[in-house]
Amino acid sequence: MAAWKAVPRHGLTDNHKTYRFFKNLYDYQEKPALLITKHKLDAATGQHLAKNQKVFRHFNYQTQQTTYFYRTNEQL
User: pTM to 2 decimals?
Assistant: First the structure.
């Protein structure tokens, strides 16, 4: 006998994807970061970033260089 699975009434089956969509509507302040071995540093101050801070990568195709940045708290 198969187990019955409840289907949400709002029609969204994956809340995570919906959350990501709405998260992109926020504005973020981007600050440069440095990645040195396993350490994440703020490029302006040299301070260590939080362990759970997400660092993003941007590759510039004209200069063939990679830059790293992190985002501050979201603002609507």
Answer: 0.61
